[in-house]
Amino acid sequence: MKRSDYISWDTYFMGIAQLSSMRSKDPKTQVGACIVNKDHKIVGIGYNGFPRHISDDDFPWNDEGNFLETKYPYVVHAEANAILNATQQLNDCTLYVTLFPCNECTKLIIQSGIKELVYVSNKDQGKDFQIASKTMLEKANVKLRQLNWDTMHV
Description:
The protein has a five-stranded mixed β-sheet, with helices on both faces. The protein has four helices and five strands. Strand 3, helix 3 (103-112) and strand 4 form a beta-alpha-beta unit. Helix content is 27%, strand content 18%. The mean pLDDT is 94. The longest helix is centred in the N-terminal third of the chain and has 13 residues, at 9-21. The chain starts with 8 loop residues before the first helix and ends in an 8-residue tail after the last strand. Helix 3 (103-112) packs parallel to helix 4 (128-139).
């Protein structure tokens, strides 16, 4: 008889996103993303960090103060990195991401053809950029699912 206590696809792919987030050097927010096609094959992975060929020792990790002295103009978000690292077209794929995407990443998600977004945290719920993200995703018919990571079978 086969084992019955194996993990679900959601747990598996969100686990990969969580593991990817651990590569981020951001001292405050670590985000990971994993893109999966209809055949349950991973086609893209990413985490938030600076663009390649830019040393993360040469730029700030601050999240407050003068804009150019913060991380915000320099960091590539996990979702964008996963899309850029994709090994195939992303039409009808599912994106697993540890944090609900910002409005800029949402545009990339929709434009890339991803049709389902699975996330864990939505710590920015109610903020303007999050409302814009959710509105765009709904209008583009991207399916949204929030997972409760604490209660998932691991």
